Structures are given as C-alpha cells and as structure tokens.
C-alpha cells in the first residue's frame, strides 16, 4: 500500500505518494473561484502533479454538514497515479451559518456542483478534459447519479455510504432497524418512536418545506428536497461503470438501499455493489478501527483498474 504524506501551509496543499518501486509523485493544490449568474461565489481546489494538468478529473462530492472541503484533502489523491487531477469543491457559504441554512438543499447543491465542474472544464482545462470520475460519499451519493446522467464527460462513478430508494423509504427502513435492534439512532434520539410519528413528520415536511422549521439541525426545506427525490431513475439511465460501497452496520443510511440497487438492476452489468460486513456509515468497525484504507485497497482501486483506470 502506498503511503500518503500531507502538509498544509498557507492555503497550499502538498501531496506526495511513494510507490512500491520508490518513485515519487508530487501534487500541488491551488484555490480557485467561479461566480454564478446570481452573483454567488463558489470556491474550489484542484490537486495535480507538479508536471502540469492532466486530461482527466476526479471530482470529490462530500456528504452533509457545514464544513470545509479541506478536511477531505488527500481523499482520492491516489487517482494521480492513473492520470487524474482532483477537484475539491467547497459548499456554498459553509462559513456563514445563516446563508448556508437558507441555501442548503438538493437542488442548490446539484446546481453548484454542476456549475463548478463545467466552469473548471472550460476555464482550467480549456475544454480538453476527456473524462471525469465522481467520488461521492454519504449525501453526495444522493447527488452524483444525477450529475453523472447530465454530464457526458462523466465516465465513472464511485458512491460510498449511500444507495438507491427515496429518502422516505430509507428513513422507514432505518426506523425499523432501530426498533428491531434497540440501537439508539438519530430517529429514536429525536423522539421518533413509531411509524405514526414518522408519518406525521414526513407529512409536515411535505406540506410545509419551510426554512424556519428544522429537524436534526436541517430545515424542512432541506429535508423536502432529499426525502422525495427518485434516485433510482438516475441509476436506471446510467451506462458508465458504477461502484457502490456501504457498511453492513450503517445506521445513517441503510445498507438495504445498496442491496436494493443490486436486486433491481441485476441486468445492469455496469453497477457493482459491495456491502462490507461489520462496518458502519464511516467504514469503522465496532472496535472503533477505521477501514477506509483497506476498502480503498481491496475494493475501490481494483475496480478502478478493472474498469480502465
């Protein structure tokens, strides 16, 4: 396994890889911005080898939460060995709680991510990109299939910690799993103890997707945009290689959503689903040991190479 060393100084990211043969690849990351027609500024970083830009791009799509993408620096950097640069996109207004709360919803994230990808392809790569791989985790997995369907440059899709089904269907599965196992998950801890409780909440969100009402720290507007989205229809349209990875003991997004994809799209040979026993949403086992590096080595990189790098 290659070792990764990361140093961050004054907004500059330096990434170094050492292969088994001792060769060294260095990457530098610069900060860029793009301005949408409404005047909103979106910031992003591009990690690339010091030898210059490549003609392929790995786009990291993070999950929920109001945090900077810099926490994900290093994720996906192995792609440099396959001729990819890496794009890290900041969420709009992640550093302004009021603006973030107002803007945070599925439609806005889809628009922002697609805009930055198109902007970077045109302005940073002068239209010379030949392929894009999307690497999405958690909530990002709700968005990436739609982005892949809409952008012909997307040639591969990797989703970690999410699957198919609507958000409503996933939520009912999670409630049943919490009740069956006695696990104190986010539904139980927030006072949702029965199907009728959940029915009531979902109806309130559907009927009043307001910004001034919240559940689990997110607005009803946010939940309305995700709960009813038809992700399966996006997977149905995809013909590029897709890898979906989930932990068996995921109590944030049920692994049944990935099994659903496997069962529904058995004739779609482009879709590979892997359920990792004993791991949770963050690919951590019950002893607290992190397994992302192992998953990367044993599942993601082999799939990457088998689908053409």
Polypeptide structure, described:
This protein has 309 residues and is an alpha/beta fold. It has a domain at 167-228. The chain is built from ten helices and twelve strands. The chain has helices at 97-103, 106-123, 140-150, 167-181, 186-189, 195-207, 220-227, 231-237, 256-264, 292-306, and strands at 3-9, 12-18, 24-35, 41-49, 56-61, 84-89, 131-137, 154-160, 214-215, 218-219, 242-247, 271-276. It has a ten-stranded mixed sheet, with helices on both faces. It has a two-stranded antiparallel sheet with strand order 9-10. The protein is globular, with a radius of gyration of 19 Å.
Short characterization:
The chain is α/β, with parallel strands linked by helices.
Main β-sheet, in a few words?
10 strands, mixed
The shape, in one word, is: globular
Number of strands: 12
Provide mean pLDDT, rounded: 89
Instruction: Determine Rg (CA atoms, Å).
Output: 19 Å
Low-confidence stretches: 1-25
Structural class, judged by helices and strands? alpha/beta
Give the helices and strands, then pairings:
Elements: E1 3-9, E2 12-18, E3 24-35, E4 41-49, E5 56-61, E6 84-89, H1 97-103, H2 106-123, E7 131-137, H3 140-150, E8 154-160, H4 167-181, H5 186-189, H6 195-207, E9 214-215, E10 218-219, H7 220-227, H8 231-237, E11 242-247, H9 256-264, E12 271-276, H10 292-306
Helix pairs in contact: 2-3, 3-8, 6-7
What descriptive keywords fit this protein?
309 residues; single chain; alpha/beta; 25% strand; ten-stranded mixed sheet; two-stranded antiparallel ribbon
């Amino acid at each position: 396994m290659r070792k990764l060393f990361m140093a961050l100084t004054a907004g500059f990211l330096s990434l170094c890889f050492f292969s088994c043969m001792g060769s060294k690849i260095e990457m530098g990351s610069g900060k860029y911005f793009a301005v949408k027609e409404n005047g909103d500024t979106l910031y992003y970083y591009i990690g690339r080898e010091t030898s210059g830009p490549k003609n392929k791009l790995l786009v990291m799509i993070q999950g929920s939460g109001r945090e900077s993408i810099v926490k994900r620096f290093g994720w996906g950097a192995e792609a440099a060995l396959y001729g990819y640069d890496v794009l890290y996109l900041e969420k709009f207004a992640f550093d302004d709680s009021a603006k973030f709360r107002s803007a945070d919803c599925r439609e806005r994230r889809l628009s922002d991510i697609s805009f930055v990808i198109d902007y970077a392809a045109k302005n940073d790569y002068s239209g010379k990109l030949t392929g894009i791989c999307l690497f999405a985790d958690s909530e990002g997995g709700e968005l990436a299939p739609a982005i892949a369907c809409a952008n012909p440059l997307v040639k591969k899709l990797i989703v970690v910690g999410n699957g198919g089904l609507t958000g409503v269907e996933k939520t009912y599965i999670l409630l049943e799993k919490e009740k069956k196992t006695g696990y104190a998950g986010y539904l139980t801890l927030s006072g949702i103890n029965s199907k009728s409780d959940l029915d009531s909440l979902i109806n309130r969100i559907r009927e009043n997707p307001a910004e001034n009402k919240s559940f689990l720290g997110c607005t009803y507007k946010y939940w309305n945009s995700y709960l009813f989205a038809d992700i399966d229809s996006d997977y149905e349209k995809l013909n590029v290689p897709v890898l979906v990875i989930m932990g068996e003991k995921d109590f944030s997004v049920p692994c049944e959503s990935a099994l659903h994809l496997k069962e529904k799209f058995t004739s779609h040979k482009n879709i590979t689903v892997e359920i990792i026993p004993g791991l949770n949403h963050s690919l951590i086992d019950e002893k607290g040991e992190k397994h992302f590096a192992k998953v990367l080595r044993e599942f993601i990189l082999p799939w990457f190479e088998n689908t053409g790098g």
